[in-house]
Amino acid sequence: MPTVDIDPDELRELTGSEEKGDEELKDDLFGLGLEFEGRTEEGAFELEFAPDRLDRLSVEGVARSLRYQYGDARGIHVPSPNSAEWTIEVDDSVPDERPYVTGAVIRDVDLDDEALESLIQLQEKLHATMGRKRAKGAIGIHDLTMLKGTAATEGNPTIQYVGLEPDEDRFVPLDSDAEMTPADVLEDHQTGQTYADLVSEYERYPAIYDDIGLFSFPPVINGRRTEVSTDSRDLFVEMTGTDQWTIDKMLNIVCYALSARGATIEEVNVEYPDHEVVRPDFATKTKTVAHDRIETILGIGLDPEEVIDLAERSGLEADREENDAGDLVYEVTIPPYRVDVLHPLDVIDDLGRAYGFNDLDPRYPDVGTVGGRHERSRLERAAREQLVGLGFEDLLNFHMISEAENYDRLDVLPGDDVYGAGEPATIKEPYSEDFTMLRTWVMPSLLMVLERNTHRAYPQNLAEIGFAANVDESENTGVAEGRRVGAVLAHHEAGYEDAKARLQALTRNFGVDLKTPPTDHPTFISGRTAAVVIDGEEVGVIGEVHPKVLVEHDLEVPVSAFEFDLEALR
């Protein structure tokens, strides 16, 4: 999970809770869903955060949530931005691949070293999450005093978002003393090399100009002329991307963080060739939540006044109403910086946290039956115990993965006629490039664990019984789901025979018939690979992992592996 570094002293200062000790602060943070992972060398808290709460990517956002939790803040706060004095003019030459821009002016911000460090961390964390490593949205923050805007027809100073040829103009990028063209930046600058793939195929590159010249090459790097320092007091924030909603929400999060430092927000006019918008967009949205559903989900009885109180202590606002059926419902208003509230259940989760999940009294459900293990669960448990008995360490990995990890790094193509190459069930709007689909088999996850454990001693024998899925139109849901048994053996003498011996022992204990006819699979070495056939049905694959797959995962020892469908053991 992602982590964010928070200085506990700065957090205490921003919350006005200087009396709280570190342990008490950790408990309060845990109540928000932020888990303490350790300390940095500088003594900051390393906090693991839920990737949906992107407003907590900075110390300012965490402090805001704590103030609500302490009752020092209530309801929704929406900054009142000043009217626009600057305009961003979008030219027809802007690349079609990156057509959207947004922005805001920040006045009178006090940037000491800690505040500047927090701003940079927020920028990079938003890039890594919502911005999908700058592909979907990229943030540029500039010292406003270093910009000179051309006067527009209304008198506002104007900057231009344009497209330019790779060698059309020159500027001095950050961390450089020499003028470079955008093409030079992609080839010779370290940051340019890192993000070159984002724009290298464009016919024209995105660029932002003021009256002096080129000062930003999004999404790659800003110019040195407008670099922000602790002496900066007025900032110009611009964001470009492939989706207007995404960059607008990223802008809201940055604006709220700077507003918490006492800054004043100023609007910016964005003039597209065919329409005009004013940003930032601090519009709120509402969700209708039924009182009965709140009580059912949380398992407690609440008065309407208590629900309204809990909503205000969550940074929301709730108005009591009746629907057409006469049932009690609440119109809950969501603040502009919350990008995670998509469903009434998200609101109920906030209400439960404000109430305190630890304060909920456990009770037996009001049903007349006694629970027991499902047959599928008993099968899974028996198989897991057998694998542990055969010398494997039991694992539990994420069900979500990226296309590169699931296919490319194992030399498999989606739709190939091999085990594990099913068509992926993808996430429409993922927050991270690392989790864009449901895995189609567990082997990629096992190899990722081996890759992260190269510093540990061998042998490493790992196994997982885990969820996998692929698109299947014959299913009612359109997706075939199942449990897979996967295992890897990594040591200097790992071979096909080692893996087959353990597979034979496992299937023998379940009384099923195993055959392993030769087959080909791109993840495994040809001639050292077989299909797993149980009771006459092909249900998996076994073999020695191919050297190019080992090299891709930085593994320097042989690996043998097998994977098959758990249901075959029934």
Automatic annotation (TrEMBL):
Record-linked SMART domains: B3_4, B5
InterPro entries named among the record's database cross-references: aa-tRNA-synth_II/BPL/LPL, B3/B4_tRNA-bd, DNA-bd_dom_put_sf, Phe-tRNA-ligase_IIc_bsu, Phe-tRNA-synth_IIc_bsu_arc_euk, Phe-tRNA_synthase-like_B3/B4, Phe_tRNA_ligase_beta2_arc, PheRS_beta_core
Keywords in alphabetical order: Aminoacyl-tRNA synthetase, ATP-binding, Cytoplasm, Ligase, Magnesium, Metal-binding, Nucleotide-binding, Protein biosynthesis
GO annotation, cellular component aspect: phenylalanine-tRNA ligase complex
Locations listed in the record: Cytoplasm
EC number annotated for this UniProt entry: 6.1.1.20
Disordered, as annotated region: 1-24
Entry's Gene Ontology molecular function annotations: ATP binding; magnesium ion binding; phenylalanine-tRNA ligase activity; RNA binding
Keyword hit for Cytoplasm: yes
Every B5 domain range: 282-362
Main location: cytoplasm
Cofactor dependency: Mg(2+)
Oligomeric form and interacting partners: Tetramer of two alpha and two beta subunits.
Any one GO BP annotation for this protein: phenylalanyl-tRNA aminoacylation
UniProt xrefs under Pfam families: B5, tRNA_synthFbeta
Chain residues that bind Mg(2+): 340, 346, 349-350
Protein family (similarity comment): Belongs to the phenylalanyl-tRNA synthetase beta subunit family. Type 2 subfamily.
Name of this chain's protein: Phenylalanine--tRNA ligase beta subunit
Reactions that this protein is recorded to catalyse: tRNA(Phe) + L-phenylalanine + ATP = L-phenylalanyl-tRNA(Phe) + AMP + diphosphate + H(+)
